[in-house]
Amino acid sequence: MRTKSIFLEKLKEKLREALVAVLPIIVIVLVLCFSVAPISPSILLCFLIGAVLLILGMMFFTLGAEVAMTPMGEKVGTCMTKSKKLTIIVALSFLLGFIITVSEPDLQVLAGQVPSIPNGILIGAVAGGVGLFLVIALLRMLFRIPLPPLLVFLYIVVFLLTPFVPEDFLSVAFDSGGVTTGPMTVPFIMAMGLGVAAIRNDLHAADDSFGLVALCSIGPIVSVLILGMIYRPGESSYVPPAIPSVETSVELWALFHHGFPTYIAEIAVSLFPIILFFGLFQVFVLRLSKRTLSKMCVGLVYTYIGLVLFMTGVNVGFMPAGNYLGQMLGSSSNPWLLIPIAMVMGFFIVKAEPAVYVLNKQVEEITDGAISAKSMGTCLSVGVAISLGIAMLRVLTGISVMWFLIPGYTFALAISFFVPKIYTAIAFDSGGVASGPMTAAFLLPLAQGACSAVGGNIVTDAFGIVAMVAMTPLITIQLLGILSRRRAAVASGDHQTAQAVGPAATVCATEDLIIEL
Fold it and tell me: Could you give the angle at the alpha carbon of 163 between the alpha carbons of 173 and 124, nearest 5°?
């Protein structure tokens, strides 16, 4: 009875969190539907049913991530590091990065939208890129290599490749970095970082436990840029999502009835390699108790149910609504309303990303509450709101995404040398985490619908929104770190001392700073 009571309390807590994340999006869309962007009842009903599935999916997924995915990643990371054999760490890291990336549902969506490159080759190249950069990320932790110089070097390589890639392909290449760090990848990789940090036992181990997602986001960009040079893709054919038109409740049910089997099979295929890998690890290395193992199995079931509900709701209910709303706003008498509306949507929609929950919780735990989940959520929301405003400006004007990515990353990398280490690692992790399935399945269709309405080039103007969402949190969270350090210096009355102290002493001002901002 006690166990059942604890479970129900946990479930209620996750339900409350899901409602807080999703309800603002529902309210915004309803306000738009009954004012400046009227939509048909069938699309609205699909959206509302999708929202219910989204809430239930987030509830089960976040519970499953807490019970299964995070402990699994921590134990794998700890065991790999304890072996102290570099060849084993490298081989297992690459294999794990490859397997998890192939399992990522959003990668399948991206692969279908890239011209001239077979899906299997694209997925294999991206997965190889993530595997390679996961190896680099873990070796960085083990050999205590500073993150900012490494990021500067790798992004210089990325931007040196861009002149050799067709312009129509650049946006998709940078989008791939955000797409591959989604709900399947982030919980496991971040937990691995915590597991490796637990073995190090030095002052900066906690700081270095972040940064894995940041480095793993670069691998897909490099891979897809290289593929773009090899295949020289031409114009891509954009196929907009089908706008549902239903006459009866039976037809409405049929839409979701056809969607559920697709995602039941897709998520099963996605989870299977991770379960197989962990199963083999359990048999030959971990040998966890039956009680611990059964708890993780239950958590995996929650994760599976949550992802099926989430992906069905987002793709069947949210994607068509996002595209149609974009068309209505883009064809209105004042299309510039797209910018403030998209910014408001971006502020709230990032809270509904499943992987954001995992990041915020782990940041709060590793800093002992000095950087709270609420503070992280606010910074991410501000960053994504800014990125959505810029993305819609691109849709309306046709400005190349590189005019924003190059100065944006240059600024983010430049200030990383003046920010407490933990803020830099968290900021670059958050960029990949913020650009998940909600961005790909609602905000990207919104931009595509608006772009088609204003007569723009969808490939160059609408794509790139994921890349923009992945970039702006790097700046906002690092600025928070700089302001937090300054606040600590003012409070202590000693500016020189404030420059010398570590992140643990400076993050304490975060909460007050967020309130002031």
Answer: 30
**Tokens for 39?**
């939509």
Say whether 60 sits in a helix, a strand or coil.
Answer: helix
d(CA 138, CA 316): 38
Residue 375 pLDDT class (50, 70, 90 cuts): confident
3-class secondary structure, 104 = coil
Q: What is the dihedral of CA 361, 210, 468, 259, to 10 degrees?
A: -50
Span 402-422, pLDDT tens digits: 999 999 999 999 999 988 888
Which two tokens mark 176? Answer: 């791939």
Comparing CA positions, the residue from 240, 234, 217 lying closest to residue 114 is 234
C-alpha 174/C-alpha 464 separation (Å) is 7
Give, as one character, the DSSP assignment of residue 70: H
The type of residue at 311 is: M
More confident residue, 467 or 78: 467
CA distance 337 to 341: 6
What is the pLDDT at residue 249? 76
Q: pTM value? A: 0.80
* Confidence (pLDDT) at 206: 64
Residues comprising the chain, all counted = 517
Q: CB neighbours of 499 closer than 8 A, spacing ≥ 6? A: 485, 489
**What residues contact 448, with CB distance under 8 A and at least 6 apart?**
238, 240, 323, 326, 458, 462
In terms of Cα–Cα distance, which of 196, 210, 213, 192 is closest to 104?
213
Residue spans of alpha helices (H) in 104-240: 105-111, 119-143, 147-161, 167-179, 185-200, 205-208, 212-231
Task: Residue 354: name the closest of 7, 22, 8, 113 by CA.
Answer: 22
